[in-house]
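As described in the Methods, two query proteins were run sequentially through the folding procedure within a single session, without resetting any intermediate state between them. The first query and its resulting structure tokens are shown here.
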Amino acid sequence: MKLSYELLDRIAAEHGSTFYLLDSSRFRQNFEALSAAFRSYYPSTRVAYSYKTNYVPRFCQIIDQLGGFAEVVSSMELTLARRIGVPDEKIFFNGPYKELAYVKSLLEGGGTVNVDSWAELCAIRRMTDGIHGAPFKLGLRCNFDVQDGVLSRLGFDVHGAAFMEAISLIDANPSLALAGLQCHFATRSLACWENRTKGMIGVIDRLFRNRVASFEFVSLGGGMYGRMPPEMMAQFPVPIPEFDDYAVAAAKPFAEFLGGLGKNPSPVLMVEPGTALVADAMRFVCAVHSIKDVRGQSIVTLSGSSYNINPTPNRKNVPITVFSATEGEHLVERANFAGYTCIEGDYLYKGYTGRLSVGDYVVFDDVGSYSVVMKPPFILPNVAILEPDPDGVSYRLIKRRETYEDVFQSYAFA
């Protein structure tokens, strides 16, 4: 993506001094690279994009165009997938809470629901009992220890009675079919991926050895690091895996296990990435509003906020670039870039040294993951999203800047 002060200033004049830039080319490259890595070990791998990570319709449409699936966790995301034309059979409905009317609608359309609990399964059975035709496709979310120090709350304990009862209930009901198994663990380490793969293979080997060939899918969920520059990698306490590393940890042993069983046909291996595809496919732009010194600390206040780029407590300094009309008039050392809010901890970047002027633009890379979708209407509404053309001359509007009316139209004032 080719950027310049002139392009950023032109966008700011029309859409405000704070905005996101979308890079669809990088998003496509990430999808293709991750798919190729996994398919090199297990050709029947498919990618289901995690809508919750960033549900900008432009990204979701690209996934559908590239042959990917939709992984949704709410009725809102399901409605979005359908709105952009994703057929129900390419939608996987996950999550611990699902509105039953949407569950029924998706099942009737040929989609797949990965059941999270015994209560949810019983509700689905009551809802579908007696309906004739092709059985509705269900998956069971599997929960086991991946030795990451986290007690996951998602899915069935695979060593518990409820899991065995769930299998029996589905098998005994002609309206339901066990189409596959799914798991999801948030930890992005390579060790977690090795352990979740071993765990899923263990479940299949113990309970489904003679029927895995009839499964449509086995999903290992999401939770992968995306590609990042060396200066950002250096801020993590562990090495950052590449896509091929994840594939070796997951797709390779899965293929070897099924090969040892001699199963043919084999189920599709699903992965459900979000961050790995979208993190570096968006940038955040905001303007320098003021530069001051507070008891020896340089504070640069920006027109954006950490709430625009996912304000997690352990936030890393993402790569930044400063665009100036002229050489900056202030030389700042170890400056902290603060947001527009009144929250004391609202910092977007810490420790910047260089020249700056009021009116400069600061561009933050790697902000595509859990940024747009988690920005609250706190103090100011959300900002515009633009997609510059590769030449860096023109751009297209992806989402307009939100207004007062957008935030308050659902309130009653009487």
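Immediately afterward, the second query was submitted; its sequence and tokens are:
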Amino acid sequence: MTIQADQEAVNIVTVEALINGQNVKSLSQSTKENPANPTEIVGYFPVTTKEQAVEAIEAAAAAFKTWKKTDIEQRVASMRRAIEKIRAAENEIVHLLSREHGKPLYDAHGEIYVALMWMEFACNEAAAALKEEIQEHDHGKTILSYDPIGVVAAISPWNYPIALSTIKIAPALLAGNTIVLKPSPYAPLAAAKVAEIIASEFPAGVINVVHGAADVGVELTTNPHVAKIAFTGGTETAKHIIKAASDTIKDMTLELGGNDAAIFLESFDVNDERAMRRIVVSNFLTTGQICMIAKRVYVHRSIYDQFVEKYIEAANRWIRIGDPFDPDTTVGPVNNVKQRDYVLSLVEDAKQRGAKVIPLGTILDQKLFDQGYYLQPTLVLDCDVHDPIVVEEQFGPTVPILPFDDEEQVIQLHNESIYGLTSSVWGKEEDAILLARQLEAGTTMINTAAVQGLDVQFPFGGVKQSGIGREYGTEGIRTYTEQHVINVPKMLDLPYIPE
């Protein structure tokens, strides 16, 4: 069934660039459609020019001179007020996010929950994380301070546009930096609205928001006033960013792609219905469009047949594809047609290679399904371990399940990937932890995966081509600082230097 949102939620939304505390109109706008119904316009966002991007960077640079001198109590107080404003506007934000992105309402609420959880953690921990350390020792005194870096260019993706914008905004500002945010053109509206809410509690120029095409991105990554780049997105895009930033040697935090594996040991109980539901959710939450979602599943051969049977049962119970505003819906459309077609091409390639593709779940409204960017979730069996659908990041509603014979084999299959964002191991806890220690990944979860195992108190990021640096945790705050060591020695003349 199709559920119509309330009248306020279906209004067309227009966002503008935010530069030095003012909304700045652009000569042209882009249209954001509803992925569940592409004929419906959700809103408009600007095509920011390169010149406007320069203005935003310069505004941030000017604001930095004053903002870096504010005390931590003032920064935290401003952020806490912003948190309360976001919480007060949550329903409005959730409706907008659901319409522009395609994620069901429960999922959109979940994204706000994660964003606020991180922002509150950052507020609670910032003073301790940024407090200077003073050590008295035999040779004198050493002061270690955590100084703000300067202007941060934050480039956020479309899959979790609010959470992956605030993951940058909160620590950057609390550390005393200023920021220029560029949301993804595939989900620009809700992220821009949240950024404006936060900006209303800070001095002009501390937070700026731009949109636009590639020339804006180039300006953010090459402008000499930009001291740090914080990017979440694809590995190939990150390679261009690294090259563009090389002339000015910018600090970077890059959270990139992943081909996250879930490994089920012989000790895993296939009759554990809650665990089977967790892995299904870990594969298909947000229609499989999460960087840390389980994208390939390896199951010990001794339990493989039973596992597949129980997996299909659990998937068919949980997966209901429909209108994001329908409370019965658990899986919405793919966010954009380009991504839908890419995922479809991987599934078709698997079929051509002889794999068995099994559709999962229930389509609640066939007419809606046919008009939107929908894909029915699929399970892929009997594929080769090196087929594209296994070794590439699908970022959509399909997952291959493959058998393995021993732990040495599955460790090799896991570690030969160019990616290393997250992984998960399922089975008896002691067995799972023992194997987890041998995996090359930034995070490994035991008997759960994806956001179900996320803890913002600890650092998150990838190894190999899944990224550089860490977000979340104390490290996610300090990554927006430069360590400054001040030495005050007692012995000014070293004994081995002649008079």
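The chain has a mean pLDDT of 96. We note this only descriptively and draw no conclusion about the first query from it.
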